[in-house]
Specification:
The complex is a heterodimer of chains A (270) and B (294). Chain A has a single domain, classed as Rossmann fold, CATH 3.40.50.300. Chain A has 11 helices and 10 strands. Chain B is globular, with a radius of gyration of 25 Å. The chains are: A alpha/beta (270), B mainly alpha (294). At the A-B interface, helix 3, helix 4 and helix 7 of A face helix 7 and helix 8 of B.
């Protein structure tokens, strides 16, 4: 017999529980490229299964910020960082939390598709292989699962051993997404993933993001405000390295609280 | 007010075009000189060696009698030498290049090392002979054997491999490195799985250049005591040996005494060129195999 009371109580709990677990908790983040300050006092909380869009004019620090989350910005010489970033309660700057481990949990898709000059299959299994998975059967399963997850399997299943460069731009980008999925991350960072692609591929990838958000948390930098409005449920507006506004996407686009946000959205600058 | 006068332009056109044609002629002439010299060389070598290259010549031992002389000893010596130079210079050269490009932090130390390696390329080869003599022949008492010769020559051509490898590694696009690191690869994994396969064509080009230089250099070998006349065939790293260039040198010098030596020298030159050609072809085949992956 179903206990309806219990079910209703549970249901209410789920609606009330707004405090979803946070995947990234950024506190007072400051970043300098040499003497130039690129990010100032950024404090943000990213929740699980959110798709958060980062918007703002060129040079506002969106790419810099997202690269700080997987510590790839530190590969640039002369970078200085202060502040705290926690990935699920773990300090990402803790020397014991190795960068190689962080990046298995936080994957990245870049602006320009960058598959390796190897076969499609070799590209997808690169991640699992470098993390120690050797069993061929397992690798093949991972490859299929990841390519399915990236909506590319049907198009390449018969030519897995062809060179990745034989794919179109949109397919290559989906291959890069498959590659990222193969490592089974928790968070996927996307740095303007569709700005180098044609509208048809862009649409495919936007649909993909909608599917992926059920299992992953996504943070996506985009120059395209319509894209942000289409695919995200939370939006951050950055200007000159400062967070101007962070709210539900609907709010940002229909009723922003800051004048500058409104000016940017309506195209008065940017 | 316009500054361009079409009349003036029209007047000057003829002489400008003439100078243009003259320049083209000069450059072509410069190239032609090189081609002519090469053709004369090839013709001389081939005509002088006609009839002197036979099975006995290729496999026979040395002899002071021209008809009986064979170059097997010198040929084996050259091959043994290359067998040492190739792996040593590749290992040291590529290792240095990887360190300088991927691991060393930009700064005074790295610049210092880089400058010194670049300058090594300009050091006269005979100085390397002295180095080899001091360290390998006498220092660790190897004597004038294949290993000493190989190590000395490997050091001589090392800068060629280092510079070519550095260029090749530098040419690998940054976005490939980013993709690898983004998935949590270590520096070594990125280097071995992505960078080296991608830069292999350039590295092999460097190795080809290095081996081509090493096969013909004689001065350092003279200093470390390689004889021009040696009867026994080399059979190991610690054997005494001689090489084709030394043989050619000996025959050329003494061709004033024995006319046929000139023919032997020409024949040996052909064999040397053939060995060089074979070595380069192997390297080019390997290089093409890796280049096709793109």
């Amino acid at each position: 017999m179903r206990n309806l009371d219990e079910e209703i109580r549970q249901g209410n709990k789920e609606i009330i529980a707004e405090d979803k677990s946070s995947v990234f908790n950024v506190e007072q983040l400051n970043l300098w490229y040499g003497k130039d300050q690129a990010l100032s006092d950024i404090s943000l909380k990213f929740a699980e299964n959110d798709v958060t869009a980062l918007i703002g004019p060129s040079g506002c620090g969106k790419s810099t910020f997202i690269k700080t989350l997987n510590r790839m910005v530190e590969m640039i010489p002369g970078v200085n960082i202060t502040g705290k970033i926690n990935y699920r309660e773990r300090n990402i700057f803790d020397p014991k939390f190795h960068v190689e481990e962080l990046r298995t949990k936080v994957g990245m898709v870049f602006q320009k598709p960058n598959p390796f000059p190897k076969s499609i299959y070799e590209n997808v299994v690169y991640g699992p292989k470098i993390h120690g998975i050797r069993d061929k059967k397992i690798l093949e399963e991972i490859a299929e699962k990841s390519l399915l997850g990236a909506a590319l399997w049907d198009e390449v299943k018969d030519r897995l051993h062809e060179n990745a460069y034989s794919l179109s731009g949109g397919q290559q980008q989906r291959l890069c997404i498959a590659r990222t999925l193969a490592v089974e991350p928790d968070v996927i960072l996307m740095d303007e993933p569709t700005s180098a692609l044609d509208p048809k591929s862009t649409l495919k990838i936007e649909e993909l993001v909608q599917e992926l958000k059920n299992n992953y948390s996504i943070i996506i930098v985009t120059h395209n405000m319509q894209q942000a409005a289409r695919i995200s449920n939370k939006t951050v507006f950055l200007l000159n390295g400062v967070v101007i506004e962070y709210a539900d996407t609907e709010t940002i686009f229909s009723n922003p609280s800051d004048m500058r946000t409104e000016d940017y959205i309506t195209g008065r600058f940017g | 007010m316009n500054y361009m006068n079409f009349e003036e332009v029209h007047k000057k056109i003829k002489s400008r075009l003439q100078i243009n044609s003259l320049a083209k002629g000069v450059f072509f002439f410069a190239t032609l000189i090189g081609i002519i010299v090469l053709t004369i060389l090839i013709y001389r070598v081939f005509s002088q060696s006609l009839g002197w290259i036979d099975w006995q010549f290729l496999t026979g031992k040395l002899s002071t009698r021209a008809e009986k002389a064979g170059i097997m000893g010198a040929l084996l010596g050259t091959l043994w030498l290359m067998a040492v130079v190739a792996p040593v210079t590749m290992f040291l050269g590529v290792g240095t290049a990887i360190y300088l490009e991927e691991y060393a932090k930009k700064g005074p130390v790295r610049s210092f090392v880089q400058t010194n390696i670049n300058n090594l390329a300009g050091v006269p080869s005979i100085v390397f002979g002295l180095l080899g003599l001091t360290i390998f022949v006498r220092g660790i008492s190897l004597g004038s054997v294949v290993l000493s010769g190989g190590l000395t020559m490997a050091l001589l051509v090392l800068p060629i491999v280092v510079v070519a490898s550095q260029e090749a590694i530098r040419a690998v696009p940054q976005f490939l490195r980013e993709a690898s690191y983004g998935m949590g690869a270590t520096k070594w994994q990125t280097t071995s799985k992505i960078l080296l396969p991608a830069s292999l064509p350039g590295i092999l080009t460097g190795v080809i250049l290095a081996l081509s230089r090493a096969i013909g250099e004689t001065a350092p070998l003279v200093v470390i005591g390689i004889p021009a006349l040696l009867l026994p065939f080399p059979d190991g790293l610690l054997s005494k040996f001689t090489v084709l260039p030394m043989q050619i040198y000996y025959w050329t010098i003494d061709s004033a005494l024995v006319a046929e030596y000139a023919n032997l020298a020409a024949a040996a030159i052909i064999i040397l060129l053939a060995a060089l050609f074979l070595m380069n072809s192997i390297a080019i085949i390997i290089r093409n195999k890796f280049q096709k992956r793109y």
